[in-house]
Amino acid sequence: MGVPFWFHFLGLVVVASPAMLVALLGLKTLLGLRFSESTQAALTRSTVVIGLLASLAVLAMMLIFDTRHVPVEVGNWVLIEKTGLHFFFHLKFVFDRLSVPFTILSFVLCGVVGAFASSYLHRDDGYSRFFLLYAVFLFGMVVSSLAGTIETLFFGWELVGLSSALLVAYFHTRPGPVRNGLRIWTIYRFSDAAFLLAALMLHHLAGAGEFDRLMGSGAWPEGTATVAGSSVFWIGLLLLITAAGKSGMVPFSGWLPRAMEGPTPSSAVFYGALSIHLGTYLLLRVSPLLDVSPTLRICVLAMGFISAVYGAIVSRVQTDVKNALAFASLTQVGIITMEIGAGLYYIALIHMIGHATLRTLQLLRAPSVLKDRQMLENAIGGRLPVPTAEITEPRWRRSLYRFAHERGFLDAMLDEYIVRPFVQIFRFFDSCERRWTNWLSGEHVEQSDPSPAETPAPCHDLQEVT
Predict the structure, then answer these.
(1) How far is it, in rounded angstroms, from Cα 90 to Cα 193?
(2) Contact 267, 322 (CB under 8 A)
(3) What is the pTM of this model?
(4) H or E, element range at 73
């Protein structure tokens, strides 16, 4: 009889612990207070431990009481009811076999990375800013993992994307990180637009955004989608685009090396462990849609295969260890996506957990690899052998090497076929608006065109960091 109460209480503790960390560090910044590095590290450590213990307690109770699906209702936060319009933002969290392991993984890896960052960023000017954005990321990951409605998932999804882009631009005094952070945020906007369209279609077809209604009342992964017909394919395709943008799959893989501009702790927990797997987590959450649409399943398999092959080829020519690990992560994400497309949901979940743990260790270890290499060369009294390319290699191998070195020309194609047309369209409408306002104000039309100084920078400079 006390089980529902304790489930509800522990579930709220899991969500509230990172929310409290965001509130404490955010209010400290707003009020101009100063916390020492040890205080901020202690706050981070305490909230992560509390959330982790609560998550483990929920898992233990689910095993003891043989419960596979525990919803925690928080109620409607936004409710709009008019003639022909019914919209509500329903805040609901679900503890099941998918969300609980991913939440525990988030707390464990964020705790490890937070402990590493407290020493790695010691006396850095942006120490407080890093831990505030880190807290936002942790909160977004927990909300996304436990989301019981598509609106709640989108809320956590946006927190993860915002904190990721801002931490890529962490070294904001240099133009490179800022430009790369802006590029990543732009790609996130494109994939998030697909997410919103899918959410609106699901609301229109099912009348609500709860996954229990959309994916069936059965516990994951045994639910049966309630949405049927050709609309399943289009909804699933939009969600696949959403997942591809967040996980860096083809054709959005160009932003992966740009993300390495951030500090090593953020690169490890974002693009080696958690954020890059959020897209595959979304596919697992909506996996009942794949059972309804075989065509959608084929699209998921194709997306995973192309991304895995692309990541395997490109990772082999990278000269920077973080870039090589980023594309190696893409290879594994592609394989996980293929496992989802093949219906191997539990294997995909185990693969995600194992890969995230391994990649976090590798990225945190990356800064000391060069030092270890120098120590080894000093010990042997000579240089370690370095592989060199043969000039007489076949043409196809040289072409493949160039393809991999240019990272598949994805950034160049993105600039040419997406960024440039959008910039030209926006400039055209800006010119029309200036002519209209100048005509209304009685000024000469010839003066309405923006001067070169006022014109936004062309998209050519976006290729400088490729």
Answers:
(1) 20
(2) yes
(3) 0.83
(4) strand 69-82
What Rg, from alpha-carbon coordinates, does the chain have? 24
- The pair of structure tokens assigned to 128 is 């407080």
DSSP state for residue 85 in the 8-state scheme: E
Lowest mean pLDDT among 138-142, 154-158, 196-200, 375-379: 375-379
Residue 335 has pLDDT above 90, yes or no: yes
**CA–CA distances in Å: residue 36 to residues 42, 125, 126:** 10, 12, 13
Q: In degrees rounded to 5, what are phi and psi of residue 69?
A: -150, 110
Q: Which two tokens stand for residue 5?
A: 């109460």
Across the chain, which distance is largest between two alpha carbons, in Å? 81
- Whether the upstream peptide bond of residue 257 has omega within 30° of 0, thus cis, is no
What CA–CA distances, in Å, run from 276 to 155, 279, 411?
17, 7, 19
The separation between CA 375 and the C-alpha centre of its own chain, rounded to angstroms, equals 36
Helix residue ranges per DSSP H, 366-394: 369-380
| Residue 102, H or E segment | helix 99-120
CA distance 16 to 232: 35
Give the pair of three-digit tokens for residue 130: 């890093």
- DSSP string of 231-291? HHHHHHHHHHHHHHHHHT-TTSGGGTTGGGGS-HHHHIIIIIISGGGHHHHHHHHTTHHHH
Angstrom distance (rounded) from CA 146 to CA 135: 17
Looking at residue 160, what is its pLDDT? 92
d(CA 183, CA 464): 12
Two tokens at 235?
């909804």
Asked if the model's pLDDT at residue 103 lies above 70, the reply is yes
Read off the tokens for 157.
């999804």
Interval 188-207: pLDDT, tens = 888 889 999 988 888 777 66
Handedness of CA 323, 129, 52, 70 (dihedral sign): negative
- Tens-place pLDDT, residues 360-379: 988 888 778 777 877 887 88
Name the DSSP letter for residue 176: H
Residue type, 163: S
Question: 444: how many CB neighbours lie within 10 A of its CB?
Answer: 8
Could you give the CA distance from residue 288 to residue 224 in angstroms, rounded to a whole number? 6
